[in-house]
Structures are given as C-alpha cells and as structure tokens.
Amino acid sequence: MKTRAKSALLMAPILILVFLGGYFLIAGVFVLTLYALKEFADAFGDKKPASWVFWASTILLYAGYLMPQIRSYIILPWIFISIVMCFLSMFSVEKRDLTQGLATFLGVFYIIFLAFHLVLVDESFRVPLAVTEHFTLSGLQTYVWVVVLSAFGTDMFAYFTGMAIGSRKLCPKISPKKTVEGAIGGVLGSVLLCGLFGFFFLPLGFANCIVIGIVGGVTSQLGDLSASVMKRKIGIKDWSSLIPGHGGLLDRLDSILFTAPTVFYILMLKAVLFGGA
Question: How large is the angle between the packed helices 51-65 and 22-42, nearest 10 degrees?
Fold first, then answer.
C-alpha cells in the first residue's frame, strides 16, 4: 500500500498537466513519450531498436502538429515517413537484425502513435477555461480526465476486487495475479468514476462518460495485458525501476496507451453520427 501511495504522488505532475491542457499537455506528453521510448529501447539490452527513429518520429509528429497549416494533415504523412525510417534503420544489416527492426516499428506505433491520442482528445473534446483573453486552460472540462479515470480507476478497482474476492484466473500464463472477478470489478470501477466525473463536470457528456467507462474499462485491461505479453517475451518484469512498486513510467502508462485512443474514437464516432461531443 505504501508503494502504491508513493506511486500515486509521483503521478501528480501528470494530473497537473491534464488540468493545464493545451500546449502544457502537448509538451508533457512529448517528454513522457520520449522517456517511455527510452525505457522500451533499454529493455531490449544489446538488441536495442533504432533510437534515432524514435527521436526523429516523435519530433516530426509534434513539430508538424504545432504548425496550424498542416495540423489537420500530419498523421498520414507522419505514418508514411515513420515506416520509411523504420526500414532505413535496417539498412545497416551488420548492426541490426529483423527483430530489432520490428521492435522499432512496434515502439513507433505502440508508444508514439497511441500516446499522441491524449493530445487529440484534449484538442478536440474540451471546453477551455478562459484565464485571460489569449490564455486558456483545459481545467476539468476535458475528456482527458475521463481517459485517466478510466485507466487508473480500472487498475485500482481491479486490484482491490481481485484481492478481496478474486478466485478465477483471467490469463494465468500472461499475468498470474489477475482474476476474472478483478477484471469485472475494474470495469465497474471505471464506469463509476467516469460516471461521477461526467455527472459533476461534464453533465452534457454524461452518457458519453458511461459508455467510455464500460469500453475503456475493457481496453484498459487489454493494454495492461498486452504490455505483460511483451515483457514476458523480452524476459523482464518491469520496463524500469523508476516508480517504487510499479516499475517504470511505461508500466503506469500501458493502460492509458489503449484507453486514450478508445476515448478519442468513441467521441469522434459519436460526433460524426449525431453531431457534437
């Protein structure tokens, strides 16, 4: 419990970035992405993926997004250029094998692409809080909070439910401690926290928050299990030892990496079909 409390305090800066939103959140996600990529690369030991691709791909995406003229068109060119760079990294055939090349592909799209959805959610689905005429904050009127609540709420409720009544193993070969009861408790916890947040802070989006709570509670756990699969294949327990009791930064963000796109595409689909967020 003490290690979990310490970890929660260490995650406080992320919550501050969510509250500030806008360029603060963009800068924060940019830095967190680069650090998560470092953890990911270091986990491979002597068979590291191409770090220069990670840096170049991240800088290209965020630099393009900050240019208003091309912001709306940056994703597809970025995907193409990133794929080309991944292949270029394998041209040094005497230095990198196919496994390292595939790990480079994985890092680009698993970390850079998925994490960027936090920026997309804040940019597309928030009601900015005006501080001055030219300065706004996201405050509590952004769906990024729902991303965080769904991901961390699922993890927290799954943990305590599993500890209390968990008996049937969910995926024993991937994560032996996870139980079916814990997974159900995690989804219910996600719905509860997202629903409460919607009721008090996003009343017009209350139904959205409930749907996100359900779907996000599932995809959050898929993200966690997917990370566990990768770590088992690599042969490590945690991505790093940065956060006491929870491993590395990537160990804490693995569920968010799946939840952020879930929230964005649910809201985007709703906007396309019914109009508004």
Answer: 170
Q: Could you tell me the two tokens for 251?
A: 């160990």
Cα separation values, 190 from 41, 198, 206, Å: 31, 12, 14
Residue 69, CA atoms < 13 Å, CB-side half-sphere: 0
Q: State whether residue 139 is helix, strand or coil.
A: coil
Q: For residues 113 and 269, what is the distance between their CA atoms, to the nearest angstrom?
A: 19
Is pLDDT larger for residue 158 or for residue 7? 158
Average pLDDT, the chain: 92
Sign of the C-alpha dihedral, residues 171, 213, 254, 88?
positive
Give the amino acid at 260.
A
Cα dist from 96 to 41, 49, 55, 173, 255, whole Å: 13, 8, 18, 30, 30
Sorting pLDDT into bands at 50, 70 and 90, what band is 245? Answer: low
Q: To 5 degrees, how large is the angle CA 79–CA 85–CA 87?
A: 105
What pLDDT is recorded for position 174? 92
Instruction: Answer whether 188's CB lies under 8 Å from 157's CB.
Output: yes
Annotate 153-177 with b (16+ C-beta within 10 A) or e (fewer): bbbbbbbebbeeebeeebeeebbee
Please write the tens of the pLDDT for every residue from 81-121: 999 999 999 998 777 788 899 999 999 999 999 999 999 99
The encoded tokens of residue 70 equal 């091309």
pTM for this entry: 0.94
150 with 193: CB under 8 angstroms? yes
Radius of gyration of the chain (CA): 19
